[in-house]
Records
---
Amino acid sequence: MKVYLDNQATTPVDPRVVEAVHRTMKEEFGNPASTLHAWGWRAEELTNIAREQVAGIVGASPKNIYFTCGATESINTVILGLREAPIKRVAHSSIEHKAVTYASKELERVGFTREVIPVSSLGNISLEYLETTLKTPTQLLSVIAANNEIGTIQDLQSISKACKKNGTLLHLDVTQMVGKVPLNLRELGVDFASFSSHKIYGPKGVGALFATDDAAKLLRPIQFGGGQESGLRSGTLNVPGIVGFGLACKILQEEMSEIDEHVWALTKLLKNRLTDALPGISFNGDPEKRIPGNLNVRIPGVDSNRLIGSLALDIALTAASACLSKTAAASSVLEAIGLSEQTQRESFRIGIGRFNTRAEIEWAADKIITTSKKITSDKLTIASNHLI
Ligand code: PLP
């Protein structure tokens, strides 16, 4: 058996989406910017349908959705797009994705102040700190709505309220939240939001930026050319990708409660199996306010890189966020919630998705348990040999 348990890094593509992307590539190759013929009109029509579907899943109006190549681009479009805004101060939490951290550091390089808001040991933003820091005029607050490593969901209502009260624009990175938790950006009073297709069973290379009418006017594009996406994101649209993204959103909107139930059941099953078999095991992140499917596991005495490496051909697991795992660097998120280096090294992430089955989870649990026990007993043997 081979079990993919890295659904926070990326998800398999829904077969219905594969079919739609394939059909569009084969039959609907027009450029939506070609306004003088039927091929272009049809491509534009497909893009508009997808825009409605994408808007639907986040409770937005289609006119406020801009297509990009993924969440990283959407995030950069917002943060760097504010480089000429009047208030030269941005804030973000200490557990953001690198796209937010590095884009904000780039603003810092050109004269902005960057404020990093601490989180609790469960990964919740300190609302007290937020309230205080926003008293200093701040152009933008960027918050990861659901964390990609530890799964914690933030108190978005309170964060939005604090921003409104202090006249700060709010950007939510909802990449890990979309399709897992009902979301209404309009009701939440968010100014910007970023998300991506490949985290929700859609194709890679396509994502969306949500911006309200007023907020969009403040953005200076970071990419210039043909003026697509109302001039905010020039470049020919990835129509097959957009069609797939739209369908992935539509499917999730229709099937979310059923998927959530399935993914929660598998998450609980795996958590219970591991807890029963591995003494001292603990789970990072908020135990209540969290997304389904994510488990950030710590097994004392087990080096997570060793565990992941031993299982790599059979089970996909990861030690830090997907983009960091190549560098084997310690996780800035685990560091921000106060874990020691040792504890970080004993932590790893499991990401369960809608296409995992109960049989897969049972099998993966056995493998993780036996491999962890072997690593611990190898260590004990080495230690006792040293004593002799
Ligand atoms: N934000 C979060 C929370 C993520 O998990 C990711 C992907 O790892 C990104 C942003 C970047 O998304 P993309 O791969 O679409 O650029």
---
Amino acid sequence: MLSPESIDINPNTGVMEPATGRYLKKVCELGQIYQDKDAFEALVAEDPEQIAYEVIEYRKAGSDLFFGTTTMRPGKIGREYFMTRGHYHKRRDLSEIYYTQSGSGILLLQSRQEETKAIEMRPGICAYIPPDWAHRSINTGSDDLVFVWCCDVETGHDYGEILDRGMAKLVVEQLGEPLIVDNPSFN
Ligand code: PAN
Ligand code: ZN
């Protein structure tokens, strides 16, 4: 029998106590996802160690649920805001939720039929990500964007298609506001 647990999540930093895993994504690892390659090179040259986001997770042996936090730094590369790689799930029948704790952003979703949806991310909004919809979170604010995610332990990540093709929509800054536009290099 599994024992109940209480995990303390700091809504401003995403730090979880206890946690069972953690990784950092540096900006320099994410060149493929941004349109403006010159702006990307310039930012990496300025600070090669800059962090884009951090994922902390809690995986309980024997449980069906898997959850954690993602903490995204604010920033832009060219006109695009800092964003996650984006992925489909390996298990096409499994969904996920994202519950924003602090900051503001956009959750961009895309079905296999290339239907697109955008869900606002702000404290209090819990987004449901249906099975087989690709998803990418974008920090459009000037503070860290922190959200809790929860899915089945079997869910898995499939990064290939989004890394290769990108998503049909981009989120860019226009006159200080986020704007969703067509991705000119999506085919
Ligand atoms: C999240 C994401 C996390 C990082 O845990 O994996 O926010 O985004 P990328 O994995 O796209 O870099 C999730 O959606 N898990 O399924
Ligand atoms: Zn996911």
---
Amino acid sequence: MDWGINLKYKAQPKKPKSVKLILWRYFTLIALLVSTVISLLSISIVNYSTYLMTRDKLASISSELNGVIGMQNNVAQQDNLSTLIYRLENNNSVEIYILDIDGAILFGRDEQLENKHLNTNLQKMKQSGNPVMYRENADYYYLSSVIYQKQECSTLVVFHYSFYSQTQQTFVRCVLIVTALILLISLIISYLLAQKLSDPLKSMAQTADEMAKGNYEVSFASAEYEEVSHLSDSLNYAKEEIKKSEQFQRELLANVSHDLKTPLTMIKAYASMIQEISGDNKAKRDQHLQVIIDESDRLAGLVNDVLNVSKISSNIDQINKKVFNLTDLLYGILNKFNYLQDTQNYHIYVDIDADLYTYGDAEKLSQVIYNLISNAVNYTGEDKNIYIQLKDDVANKRIHFTARDTGKGISKDHLPYIWDRYYRVQEEHERPVKGTGLGLHIVKTILQKHGFDYGVKSKQGEGSTFWIDFPEVESVVPTI
Ligand code: ADP
């Protein structure tokens, strides 16, 4: 069986619809709904008011008629009644009948009435004692009781609806035309509105595509709507950050390759010297071997920094906290810098309180302190003096650490950025400990993971003081 064939029919992900189309569709639906409701409402209002008007009109005709009938109850006055009925019929476009108790016509223009509901409504009228109005075949009928020729009778006023219905039809036609017009206008307006709302998003998508191709010079255009403008601001910020990070990474690669090259060249050169010149001269050979060892240490330090940053950034490195002697840890680190005092005239002045204990990851905090002392060594002034303090702040249950140098200091412009990854103030000068622009980023990450306070005070021309506040804890009594 060829399973591969099935792949052809693999379900394709549904293509998302455009915002413009969706908005336009919803706007149109709302416009349709609103105009339908309005037209239905106006037609019902017209119908109902027609009904009320007809009822009032028929009631007034009927009461006028009944009044006259009530007063003219002898045959001699029949002529007067006929004239009134004739007048009422002509003036009001109605037909008038006088019916006996069973609904038979006593007076009227037709001999017979084609009216299915007459008897039912006669009963209704008798029972309630009130006039009754009903509708049949689009005509209105108004029944009311009256004494005619000394008998209990009823008058029936018939109103042919055809007259009103024409007016109503014209009205309905008007309503439909207006509705269609409103719908058309709202279709156009909603299309324009949908376009206005979706255009900035479309342009942002195009800009993002451009950016994805590596063009960081693009800028996300803002819009008049708050949300879209917020989005464009965030995207512009993200773009700037990506741009910076790319630039920093490029610089780091250049720096690291440069910093790797120098010790490698030295190692090669000194190894050749041992091979060719100093092979049998122990003193010279040892001297050359020491250079190779020092340069290898620098290389290892550099590679370590790069590895540490990537480990810390990707959270592979967990913090293993324990209580440890910070004083001992600091002396241990300072020992690593002895060679600078012995060989390069550096002076490290220390003021360290004895046996101070803290709680944290000793290995990582040792790296933090090492980085700060290295920086002090790298950036101190001509006097090559460095001042290290570790003081017990009993009142606050803290241990205050400072590493001070006498160098150029850091300008206010650079100060906020020195903790950023790959950040280096571009200055050419010889440094005894090679840096990568990662040291302070490692310091920041580790101290933040511990939740310790830290910072720097620096004034240009007066040097810098980096500080950390460690929590002070009781030493652990060793268990026997
Ligand atoms: P680097 O490897 O370049 O020393 P860091 O992350 O340790 O990287 O420091 C970042 C930048 O901060 C340095 O390039 C330097 O410009 C500045 N900086 C750090 N420590 C000091 C200091 N003690 N005095 C002056 N500038 C410093």
---
Amino acid sequence: MTQSTIHPVTIRDAAKILLSGDVCAFATETVYGLGGDATNSDAVLAIYATKARPRFNPLIVHCCDMEMARELVVFSDMAEKLAEAFWPGPLTLVLPLKEGAEVSELVTAGLDTLAVRVPALESARDLIRAVGRPIAAPSANPSGRLSATTAEQVHELFENKVPVLDGGACTAGVESTIISVSDESCVQLRAGALPRDEISTIIGFEVVEADVNAAISAPGMLKSHYAPNAKMRLNIEMPDQGEAYLAFGPFAGNNDNSTITLNLSEAGDLKEAARNLFAHLHRLDAENPQRIAVAPIPQRGLGEAINDRLARAAAPRP
Ligand code: TXA
Ligand code: MG
């Protein structure tokens, strides 16, 4: 552990770290990212090593604006429309990699497409601007573990070994929505912080979910992912004795004082629930419960992303 990992990191510090080829975590509006210079293969290797991430799983490249993104990928008319409507924001576009684009081959894991996004959080864009290069950043968690929505969680997950640009608690709380766009089609590869119906409204037809068996998919959509240490049960109205409970909407309690209950949103608000999801799971898991039971979450709007993360968190571990 170096001194810089426990002292506050400024944007200037973070930019320096990234330009030197090291990794630095930083806040975005969705979850914290583990950043590295996307043009530097050593930096990208350091990201994979720090996360213990399989190398076949490509990374999202973060740009400070459209101009930077245009250097890297080819925008179809539909992609332009989406970027205009939702950037900066929690939408990742998978687009054809531009010939001669200055980005390490390790970022795309050999694919001829690149996932790009312009984050909404100003400090994230300021950081990218200060570096002057695109920043590759997967979520700042060891591969397979819960994502982090605060700087404290990143410190805990990486045992204080990774410097973090603290941007406060993430306002969206789940990862970006990933869309693969071509001239004719628009397919959702990962449900996320931007609800699918909002994207459909902009393009004028329904964005479909990717067929998991089709060639076109996000290689990183592993079944077990975002996993707490405790086992989980989903769609539970009333937890068993000894189970920690993640409630949603009004919940009167279960008379079991030995266990902890946290509510994603007493008001039943999906936006609030998404914001609380990973933070609440981290807190419940820290109590070392026998098991975590989770209330049913409606499958509309942001519920799609929340249920996706919960299903992966509850999936059998490899
Ligand atoms: O909100 C987010 O998207 C956060 C913040 C830090 O920006 N990042 C994030 O990255 O969630 P990560 O690495 O945890 O998830 C990236 C996903 C993976 O499932 C990966 O397989 C997919 O994006 N992906 C990356 N490049 C791709 C490509 N060219 N084609 C298809 N999927 C791709
Ligand atoms: Mg991730």
